[in-house]
Request: fold
Amino acid sequence: MMDYQLTVPAILRRAETLYSKKEIVSCLPDKNIYRYTYGNFVVRVKKLGAALRKQGVREGDRVATLCWNHHQHLETYFAIPCIGAIIHPLNVRFSAEDLGYIIDEAEDKCLIVDQVLLPLFEKFKSFISISSVIVISQSSQPVPEGYLDYETLLQNGDADQFKSFDGDENTAAFMCYTSGTTGKPKGILYSHRSILLHTLSSLLASTDIGITEHDSVLSIVPMFHAGAWGLPYNCTLVGAKQVYPGPNLDTENLLRLLEAEQVTVTGAVPTVIQGILHKLDEHPGKYKLALRTIMIGGSAMPRFLVKSFNERYGVRVLHTWGMTETSPLGVTSTIHSELKKASKEEQYDHARKQGQPIPLVEIRGRNESGLIPWDGITMGELEVRGPFVAASYYKDTTANTKFTSDGWLKTGDIATIDENGFIEIRDRSKDMIKSGGEWISSVALENALMSHPAVLEAAVVGVPDARWMERPHAYLVLKEGKKVSTQELKNHLQEMFPRFWIPEGYSIIDAIPKTSVGKFLKSALREKYNREYPAINR
Amino acid sequence: MMDYQLTVPAILRRAETLYSKKEIVSCLPDKNIYRYTYGNFVVRVKKLGAALRKQGVREGDRVATLCWNHHQHLETYFAIPCIGAIIHPLNVRFSAEDLGYIIDEAEDKCLIVDQVLLPLFEKFKSFISISSVIVISQSSQPVPEGYLDYETLLQNGDADQFKSFDGDENTAAFMCYTSGTTGKPKGILYSHRSILLHTLSSLLASTDIGITEHDSVLSIVPMFHAGAWGLPYNCTLVGAKQVYPGPNLDTENLLRLLEAEQVTVTGAVPTVIQGILHKLDEHPGKYKLALRTIMIGGSAMPRFLVKSFNERYGVRVLHTWGMTETSPLGVTSTIHSELKKASKEEQYDHARKQGQPIPLVEIRGRNESGLIPWDGITMGELEVRGPFVAASYYKDTTANTKFTSDGWLKTGDIATIDENGFIEIRDRSKDMIKSGGEWISSVALENALMSHPAVLEAAVVGVPDARWMERPHAYLVLKEGKKVSTQELKNHLQEMFPRFWIPEGYSIIDAIPKTSVGKFLKSALREKYNREYPAINR
Reply:
């Protein structure tokens, strides 16, 4: 067989030869729309690649980006790996201190930054030494002095001078730092091979994402967060229309894009999707959508929202699970053929689960007694392996505790696995509540609380208890104008859970603190509890 | 990233863990149905692997099979590569002489043969030296003396003794000989990696095959011919129900299986599919089918048959193109989104084409002036490359003329490529007719002749001509009871082609000679012509 390396340039060549007339669309900071073709995109990628070489970027160098989702960011996704360098998207929601730390550790040689994000950059600029900073303006405003202008750089780039990376597929192409809620962020290197294999596996018909050239895909999930779940590379390989929202992530703008660009597939965290559902419900018939599938990741979507979206708008809400360490897609909530003839309600019960591993991903679970049975009941820490799963962290020798002795990644997520290999994430291992020797899933309690008509958001944390070691405590945000009593909440939960699961304490708060990627920041709630109830129950 | 090798055992592990309850169905020689689960299948694969090791089969050894499509053949597809050996399916339609030659060249160590194929085996048995012959009985008849019984072997195999291959993904796993119409057959080795990548690429939603766990797949295309186009590995990776017809390939039996097993996807050469269409038309409403897609390969299906199947039975006829050297899938006739709003007729015009390369396959065309433009008009020899395209032939040093100096495979097929990368095969290069310096496509003439109501089959060959060097000559098989004049045929063709394309000569014959894989054997027709018209026109 031919020695054909699995590299990002192979994706670019395919896009260039087969899809030159297809469209890529960006929503600019001023909400105007910019659109161009794959054909023009490829020419600009080559120009950027050639220009970066001229700037001194060599194979193996890291080039950081600090950008929202837009076509220029997509250009960097290709130009940087296609000259053998490593693209390193920075999470704009990290603290300035963390960003400085990351750039320093990664030894980024060059930074490409959105003009609208310069204020963030100014905050950590003094902590870092970086040779060149390139600014993407996206407006008529000139780029401030001292910075290179992205568009000028491209104009001076010569596409004919572009020399495509032609090396080993195991060469690093992409760098991502995880948004750990504790400790310093940790870096992961994706190789050309891992990107290609992740792309192929994600695009299989059997994952139920199954993007094709007929789709129009809006990547709401940020390109600075786990590579926008692979959507940019996926879309480019199969020539789907690509739509990027820029910095305008408000519900109204997202709905405008969904409608105007006749988006068929999108991906986002549950809170964003919940916002879209509320807006659709508020204005029945206003938006003419073509949506077929919403990929959900980050955390689970409550069952009633999955159902609402499907029954009111004919949209499939597809749970996925993954992490930066898994490139990131690991499992998707496909519907098993056994359920084809089941009732809709049974199918929704099933759709709550995170799902089945995509091809080339292998899973298992482990608790104190060893590997757990695949019975859908026994909980254990999920372990995974596969060709697009990280085997180590960048420059990190202390994180080896994240891998088993036989080379599987310990995910830190507590899950059950059923007989067909469908996993259900019950909790982050550190958020699991252990009360009187028994495990209580905070996520299950939260979902149940959020199904109460008065509750908008709920987070449940384990708090110290003299008798049971730990007990669940619920923090609630109520819907506008709604009230609810503690007894009412307890009654609501008692229908669904064993008695020892029911929290004694409930606190109403204004907002639940969240991480940079929109997940509940439970460590902050535990600290809050310990501050406010220093001695109670201990 | 983890060092995870792309091997056949990875497919088996997935089937074992996720799809143990799914079904595999064989139609036995006596037309009874045998069915069992993936769970049992995996246990038997392990037993077979362990038993073959006991028989002395070592890593790298070739194990030949001479079998129809059935579950035991599927077991060998996995057991042999999963112990690091190489499965070598023999084409039962090759001559005994060729089979002897192939086994000798491949140095097959062991042969697994269907009892119903023993008469064929007896014909070349004396030419070869092979250490053990294992017979699959599939009936109550005992296996003849001197042979090992497949079922006895399995009963004595110990699944716990099975040790899965754990080596490099570039190790050979599968061997296939091409059914060349000239010269000796040539062997091609597929690696574990090439099989996995071919499987992933074939299963992408964008190929329009898109087999999932919900499908029931009947492999009519033989497992001894280019690995049944990859269907056995494809189905096993995603847990589709698998249906194998055994030796009973008559239309009636195929329709019985399509109906009884609610088959959704099947693959076969056009003649088989034409037979199915005729039978459906003869008995309206008799068969309740669940078919959605028929993969067509080997040669093109006339446009009116594609249309008939779609309009009368709601079945998508999906052209594919490939060759043993391409593992074998290279392109599929997906419908480009530009055509979404086109008329049905325009879509059928498009569906005649072989299609667009599947991901990781790259194409280009070449004629005397160099690489051809992608204009859909200019004809040239198709060249391909990719990670599942052969780079050489087994033990063959003379076949290097099949590869370009920069490492692409010359396919020997003459094609056009349109601006979206859709290829249309116009002819085999050796079947192209060059008349007065201009090329005439025999395939185009054949399809046009077969659209005449009196014509069942048509083959057009180039015959010597004193003035034009070569002229087309048509051989026709008429439908029962039909007649047609030469003038009528000429009038029919004149509507569609330039005048110099229209053949002067037409011969009515009883049957068109075919190759072992059902393609027209044009060399035999050219010889026939030269025998019958030794001096005419020269």
In short: Chain B touches chain A through 57 residues (CB under 8 Å). Chain B has three domains: 1-22+32-190, 250-430, 432-532.
